[in-house]
Amino acid sequence: MRIILTGFRGTGKTTAGEILAGRLGLPFLDTDRIIEERAEKKIPAIFRERGEPGFREMEREVIASLPPDGVVVGTGGGAVLDPVNVERLRRGSLVFLLQAGEETIARRIVGSDRPSLTGKPPAEEVGVLLRERQPAYLRAADFCIDTGKRPSAGVAGEILRIMGEGPTSTLSRQAGMQFLGRLPLPETDRAALESRSGWKGKRLPGLCAIAGYPCSHSKSPALWNSLFARYGLPYLYTSFEWPDIGELIQAVRDLGVRGLSVTIPFKETVIPHLDGVDPDARAIGAVNTVVQCGGVLRGSNTDWLGIRAPLEDRAGARAVVLGAGGAAAAAVYALRSLGMEVTILNRTPEKAGVLAERSGCRAAPLSTFRDLRPEVVVNATPVGMHPDRSSLLAAEDLEEGMTVFDLVYTPPETPLLALARRAGCRVIPGTEMFIHQAREQFFHVTGIRVPEAIVRELV
Ligand code: NAP
Prior knowledge:
alpha/beta
């Protein structure tokens, strides 16, 4: 096992890392120090001669050459901003993010010889860079530790405790395991979880899950577990099928679950149980991704990105969204972000009106579809989902040149898409949304950018 300490300058990576390495009887490597040794120059001189891009190139090379096992590594503060570094650092490792408040960091780095990256005075620069880098830090780490009030030996001790017991207390873990005993987990997952008493050696350090009711049919566990194996992340992804979102989120806290995919019927109701929600998810009113770091649960939404990606070449088009539920809200947000003029058509017109008002677009009755002459149509209702064989639109509604995106992904060719294909429309199946949203979700939880072709092949 390799242990990586990451985080901003002044969070104590080097001092805590050296103590930790001493206690584990392992060598400690500091990537900034290796860069200086290889260049035979101090970092300010490297910046003067090669600029930040030159330094980052050297940092990439150093990270690529780190030993794969049996070492404690402290990284430079900007290393995990590059997803390629994150992929390399995470392989076969436990990654700890060391954190501290702005004032503590500013106090700790007084007199540092490190070059300014923003041209601002040091105290101001800390705040600016911390805010900018925080999302990347949170994505790249398995565990977060606040070093503000702990001496370095205490930080090393906390890392050892987490490695031995996991991020939560014994009591919490017991409560979480008891709850899991009530869930219909796959038997192989249950066995893996029960043997997860410690984090040392080859044991699983982490758990991710999909939360829904129902969700045991989901394709997400197969996809995520293949990705974990591919990138050398010792995690298990399972399914938490349970009717009460409050109890599910308590278990997520008790067990220190790192990443949670949220599905029907919890995308809206999960929000009050979280500690924070990002601005896109807040605007859509739905969360499909929860990431936990240091006991804090943050919600975001990747559904809209999954709808946006296949439609990027239709920016500015006239669009219709069928439906006014959670998927429709994500669709409207995605289409509006591409500058489309959107009309919402829904079986219950009042719901279409509410969504239209909230998102600054129009609502109209389903019967007006043909008058609207849309260039892009998104079906965000379950109509056409197996075993249903119906379509909300008829053959006469569809014209050559239209783009028809059906968010339903079972079956891949829905009755609506079959009609649209026959009419000469460009068709986009719901699997496209699944592929793009899953890729974004994996990025939120791990900091790794999986090439689209890999997710496509696995799906
Ligand atoms: P939801 O919140 O329950 O909303 C369903 C919407 O569909 C409502 O507006 C509802 O209209 C309408 N509807 C339901 N049955 C209908 C019918 N028989 N005729 C006309 N309208 C009907 O569900 P959701 O979370 O938005 O999900 C909708 C669909 O999106 C799902 O079934 C799923 O297939 C798809 N989806 C796909 C992905 C993916 O990755 N591809 C991800 C998420 C969702 P009322 O307001 O009148 O009830």
